Amino acid sequence: MSLVKRVLGYLNPIGHLGDRRYSMLLPFLVTLITFVISEVFAYYIAKDPLIVSLYAIFIPIVYILYFSFRFGMRGGIIVSILTVIYYFYIIYTREYTGNELEAGIETTMVLGAIFLLIGFIIGWLKQKIDLLIEEEAHEKRRLQAILQQLPVGIIVTDSKGKVIQLNKRTSDILGKKIPLGVQVGKDTFVEYEKDGKFISTSETPLYQTIHTRKPIIDKEFTIKRPDGKKRHIQINASVINNKKGKIIAAASIINDITAQKELEARKDDFVNMASHELKTPLTSLSLFIDGLNLALKAYSDERVHKSLGSIKQQVLRLQDLVSSLLDVSRLQTGKMAYNKENFRLDQLILESVEALQQTSETKRINYTNKKPSWVKGDKFRIHQVLTNLITNALKYSPEGREIKISIKQDSEKVIVAVADLGIGIAKNQQKKIFERLYQVTDPDTKTYPGLGMGLYISREIILRHKGKMWVESSIGKGSTFFFSLPRTKTVKRSIL
Ligand code: ADP
Q1: Ligand 1 center to residue 260 CA distance, Å?
Q2: Best mutation site among 425, 428, 430, 442 for ligand 1, i.e. most ligand atoms within 8 A of its Cβ?
Q3: Distance CA 281, CA 276 (A)
Q4: Which residues have C-beta within 8 Å of that of residue 117, sequence separation ≥ 6?
Q5: What is the mean pLDDT of the chain?
Q6: Model confidence pLDDT, tens digit, residues 219-249
């Protein structure tokens, strides 16, 4: 059975498109044997030598078509030549004379030329197709080799999320060999974790990008591999459209960022430890200065009091910096705790404004809206956010300019806006200023001191309150920082 299958497979011309091995032996032997059988049949079975004229044209045509399509030009040419020889053999053995002989030779010449032409054209087309298929296969193999050897993991799916392509690096990172044909969103490859929680298969980047058609950019996950090891990965995923905008595939690129993450964690640990170590002596220093101030109260030399005041100021600044460093490290490690309660945001703003107005004589902070706005959150942390935004507004605007604070609310949320008429922020920097340790590096703004931690801490605090923070700004005209917080739905208050 398998032999029959193999023979049929060998003879099938369609199955050999792209195969550039062209045999001459098979067309030669098959044609020769056919003509021998034809002669035996004519002389010994039909006993009519002239009977061959019935099929002598039909059979060679079929053979030329078949062999040129199976073995290229060689197949067609060999059958044509053998046919012409056979025709001359017939003319000779049937002893044609006179007009019959002339017509026989003419017909043989014309048919020979036609057969050669057909064999040549079909054979040439077949060889051209083979070449194209081989080039395409070569290109495919080249792309495969590139894909396999890329230092990042790559998964490609069809438009429905069935995996059609992936490279070795993917299996290395995920710690598991993923078979082709598995379905994204249905079959589990590995366990993905985000913010400490395992996510469902329908939340994986490839599934998300296929269903929302939006690209996934630099998303970080932790995966638990089958060997129990955890790895940090960064994924970019996107659908791939054809020229008409129809999805033809989706691809995701996986980067192993475990080493980078471990280094970051070590750095965070160091900052955390250093800040803790700095906190204690600074608190003592501050207390000593207060004690010294008290002890020297009676001392009349103004210069001593001025110096002590300056020292206290610097210590307070240092304490601020250290607590910001601690906050950054708490946010990084997810250890920031929030004591949430219902409180009036409008009153908290008022308190912050009053406290900060005292730090600046030349810039007025204008806050008029006093409508009660109840929110639920950590009052201390929201106060920290307000202080940061107002301090920045004061810091980044010139003398004499006003800072305006307003509050708006709808049924869902309260939005606070802190507007200044200061130096402003360029469009391309507006997202980045909320990143950790980011500062605008414009030579004009370089003179302002800071470490780029305030906005990062503020935004993270607001996000953890299920709110949002954003900025609208234009260079030279000023900036308005907004944050929203969900409104407390109903606040039960005692009427007594
Ligand atoms: P810091 O002020 O300590 O540098 P922040 O995180 O508070 O850090 O701010 C990050 C950067 O955003 C600042 O360095 C500054 O360039 C820019 N920025 C923040 N607030 C304003 C503002 N009101 N006007 C102009 N630029 C601002």
Answers
A1: 27
A2: 425
A3: 10
A4: none
A5: 89
A6: 888 888 888 888 999 999 999 999 998 999 9
Instruction: List C-alpha distances in Å: 430 to 218, 243, 316, 442, 452.
Output: 19, 34, 30, 13, 13
For 367, half-sphere exposure in the C-beta direction (CA atoms, 13 angstrom radius) is 24
What's the 220 CA to ligand 1 centre distance in angstroms?
26
Structure tokens given for 139: 């290109």
103 neighbors 118 (Cβ within 8 angstroms): no
3-state secondary structure of 444: coil
Ligand 1 — pocket residues by CB below 6 A?
A: 388, 392-393, 396, 420, 422-423, 425, 433, 439-440, 445, 450-456, 479
Mean of the pLDDT values across residues 438-455? 73
Q: What is the pLDDT of residue 268?
A: 83
Distance of CA 381 to the CA centre of its chain: 35
8 A C-beta contact, residue 422 and residue 363: no
pLDDT of residue 361: 86
| CA 392 / ligand 1 centre spacing (Å) | 6
Ligand 1 centroid, distance to 385 Cα (angstroms): 13
The pLDDT tens digits of the residues spanning 117-155 come to: 999 999 999 999 999 999 999 999 999 999 999 999 999
Dist CA 483 CA 458 (whole Å):
9
Cα–ligand 1 centroid distance for 307 (angstroms): 30
Task: Output the residue whose Cα is nearest ligand 1's atom 7.
Answer: 454
Buried b vs exposed e over 355-379: b needs ≥16 C-beta within 10 Å? Answer: ebbeeeeebebebeeeeebbbbbbb
* Across 401-412, average pLDDT: 92
